[in-house]
Write a structure and sequence with these properties.
The chain is α/β, with parallel strands linked by helices. It is built from 15 helices and 14 strands.
Length: 452
């Protein structure tokens, strides 16, 4: 990572032909460079329309330039944004001219890293920028927006303040070694630690939802051969993604398609048919079906409404519940007049659907949305969805809290209790970036795109 004294430049919009392209500049030379358009440094936050001319005087493009005076900018330092026409050649020519004037190419995530280092964002907010860019559903967007505005940071600040209060109380006894924590103070400390532990567990409970928002809800379609699983996949995604045939066992491997259902992003997975006497190649497909079912978030069990309900393998039946499974009684369009569909196991919701005609599809989608909604874990009125790094730090904080609780027994050294509490503070501080681990920062920001 280069020096903060460098002025960096990069394309802030995707490479390719478009109506507009935005070139971002940040660093001490931004004010001087903003004078290229209009001949003088414009007032901050005022869009200036004019010609961009290269160092040799040739006209490059008709642009709009906006200067941002630090610290009131995204990075917290003087910055410049140049909007040009979206011809890639124009954008590249402007970038090369900026490099010739003393800028250097920005590294991946360097703009956001500077925002973090200059105190414009904490680390959880910086990560929310990437979540915002890659959000694939309304709920993912909402969670990223709330985290960008400090929702996670506020919850962490509350926990941190509570730990600091306890630590200050404990360290008062360390300063007076002849004293020990009296019983009444141990009760107060124990209550405070229990409150912090509950708050930590509540945040940790959002980890799974965070994974679902970022990766999509794994929704596995399973059932016996020729029940209509592939037809249902095609109906849901709106195009012929899977081959459909009257011959049973057409699907030998699993297929996966992204799907937006209401405010949720799904990973819809069509699997090989389950049956008791498969051929060797079918058995390989069934093995993969079992693997997909084992880590499914939602299950769509497709059953031919005109046939008896087939038996399920125990490893699949054990995974099913009313909370994660919808029984899709398919082919209701083929039921004889007045006939009733097959009877499903007690406790599971069954919906009548025709994957061929689309009958019942809206009710099925509502059933999926209802179950996906239940994954959300609210903290008050806020959507919190921590990532793996946050979860790792919170688990370490929880371990230190439990260790601290064990040291509240009479006669335990206050110094050891204080050490555990500092461990809690260090772990919580890592989430917001209060603890500066350079290698961790390098890895985190390397996952950002150039220009962000």
């Amino acid at each position: 990572m280069g020096s903060l004294s460098d002025t960096i430049a990069a394309l802030g919009t995707p490479v390719g032909t478009a109506a507009l392209a935005v070139i971002r500049v940040s660093g001490p030379a931004s004010a001087e460079l903003s004078a290229i358009v209009g001949g003088a440094t414009p007032p901050p936050r005022v869009a200036t329309h004019g010609d961009y001319r290269a160092r040799d005087g040739r006209l490059v493009d008709d642009v709009v330039a906006t200067f941002f005076k630090g610290p009131q900018s995204y990075t917290g330092e003087d910055s410049l944004e140049i909007s040009s026409h979206g011809n890639p050649l124009i954008a590249q020519t402007i970038l090369e001219d900026l490099y010739a004037r003393g800028c250097r190419p920005a590294e991946p995530g360097e703009f956001t890293r500077r925002a973090f280092l200059n105190g414009r964002l904490d680390l959880s907010q910086a990560e929310a920028v990437m979540d915002l860019i890659h959000a694939r559903s309304e709920r993912a967007l909402a969670a990223a927006n709330q985290q960008l505005r400090g929702s996670l940071g506020r919850h962490l600040a509350t926990l941190t303040e509570a730990v600091l209060v306890v630590l200050a109380r404990v360290e008062a006894y360390i300063d007076f070694p002849d004293e020990d924590l009296p019983p009444e103070d141990r009760v107060v400390v124990a209550q405070a630690l229990a409150d912090v532990l509950r708050g930590t567990d509540r945040l940790l409970a959002t980890h799974r939802y965070g994974d679902l928002l970022r990766g999509g809800i794994k929704t596995v379609i399973l059932g016996e051969p020729n029940a209509g699983k592939s037809s249902l996949l095609n109906r849901l995604v709106g195009h012929e993604r899977a081959l459909v045939s009257a011959e049973p066992g057409t699907t030998r491997d699993y297929l996966e398609e992204p799907l937006l259902v209401g405010p949720h992003a799904l990973r819809l997975i069509d699997t090989a048919g389950l049956r008791t006497d498969p051929e060797a190649i079918e058995q390989m497909g069934i093995t993969k079906t079992l693997e997909r079912a084992a880590d499914a978030d939602l299950i769509l069990w497709v059953v031919d409404a005109n046939r008896p309900v087939p038996p399920l393998l125990p490893e699949i039946a054990d995974r099913m519940s009313a909370a994660n499974t919808v029984v899709v009684l398919n082919k209701v369009d083929l039921l004889a007049q007045g006939a009733l569909p097959c009877t499903i196991p007690v406790g599971l919701e069954a919906l009548r659907v025709s994957a061929l005609t689309g009958v019942g599809l809206e009710a099925l989608i509502e059933g999926i949305i209802c179950r996906a909604d239940a994954f959300q874990v609210l903290q008050g009125e806020e959507i919190i969805a921590i990532n793996a790094r946050h979860a790792d730090a919170l688990r370490r904080a929880r371990e230190c809290l439990r260790s601290a609780q064990d040291k509240l027994a009479p006669g335990a050294a206050s110094e050891l209790l204080a050490s555990d509490l500092r461990g809690v503070l260090d772990a919580l501080g890592e989430i917001g970036g209060k603890i500066d681990h350079e290698r961790m920062l390098d890895h985190l920001f390397a996952t950002f795109c150039i220009g962000k």
